[in-house]
Amino acid sequence: MVRKATPPGGVQTAKTLTELAAVAGVSVGTVSKALSNRGYVSAATRERICALADEHGFQINRTAQSLKLGRNDAVAVTLPLGHESAQTFSDPFFIALIGHLADAISAQGSELVLSKISAPTHGWLSNITRSGRVDGILVIGQSDQEAELSRVAVNYRPLVVWGQYRAGQNYCSVGTDNFAGGRMAAQRLIDSGRRRLVFAGMTDIPEIAARRDGFIRACEEAGIAPDGQIETHLTADAAYARLAEAVARDFDADGVVAASDVIAMSAMRALIERGRRVPEDVAVIGYDDVGLAAFTTPPLTTIRQDLKRAAEAMVDLLFRRIANEEAHSLSLPPELVVRASA
């Protein structure tokens, strides 16, 4: 049991690091290390100091500590939904990427501060940089916010974006080669004998536009004309409604390249419910390889984005930029994962 102690001067409740150090009979530095879990302090001393802090109701003044250390040990992870305001963090892709980012940020000794910007307005990113509450910012997706990202990147260095690099881009990004992925998906269908191919997804998002362009290139190289494009949102309910409508009306494709696994799973549901067999009548390929992709019926063929590797790369680049080191954009290769749907 920890005995109550009164420091010199008769202070009954320790309110500062100095007072708590006096109560504990150790240096201020030792108290700081013990409570912030940084640096070496023996387990017994750390336990004793933490017990005294609890007894005194003591909390570190994080604002003062941040000013002293020149850092917050926190990273903002933000999701700007300029296109898909209905998307949520429960989207399988976001769950996977945010989980890997959280692990990588924690390994750096920092905390993740998560936010969703449902209707981005001019200056939303600048507001985060000016808050002084984080050491850097990770942005998940470029959406339609390239102008805002470019404007902030001129003066704010610790910024890394999940998204495909574009020539002339002034902000640091990590992404896969979406053109190659779309081309790879279409080529898989072509190699299996499919000739009436359709692309499903909205293409005003840069990454998805690149996937569609790769899809078209593969069709052109094979000498076939794409069977069109089904414009659909990325959320499951919206994608299912749009694809169900298309299948019921004038759908004649024998192969679907979907812009995401969520769209692909919605397509399979719409097809099967309307009497089309997958893959016998229509082959379906998704994009991302989220955790659910291997457990659909049939299991989903897809283009894998290695989100663990991507998250680790994003966090590594961010902390190098925080340390004012050189850190440049990175493009990762996509990978075809063949399962039963195509």
From TrEMBL:
Keyword DNA-binding annotated: yes
| InterPro entries associated with the record | HTH_LacI, LacI/GalR-like_sensor, Lambda_DNA-bd_dom_sf, Peripla_BP_I
Question: Gene3D superfamilies from the entry?
Answer: 3.40.50.2300, lambda repressor-like DNA-binding domains
User: Entry's CDD domains?
Assistant: HTH_LacI
Show the SUPFAM superfamilies listed in the entry: lambda repressor-like DNA-binding domains (SSF47413), Periplasmic binding protein-like I (SSF53822)
Q: Which residues form the HTH lacI-type domain?
A: 15-69
Keywords assigned? DNA-binding, Transcription, Transcription regulation
Q: Coiled coil where?
A: none
Entry's Gene Ontology molecular function annotations: DNA-binding transcription factor activity; transcription cis-regulatory region binding
Q: Do you know which Pfam families this protein is assigned to? A: LacI, Peripla_BP_3
> This chain belongs to which protein, by name?
LacI family transcriptional regulator
Q: Which organism is the protein's source? A: Stakelama pacifica
Its lineage reads: Bacteria, Pseudomonadati, Pseudomonadota, Alphaproteobacteria, Sphingomonadales
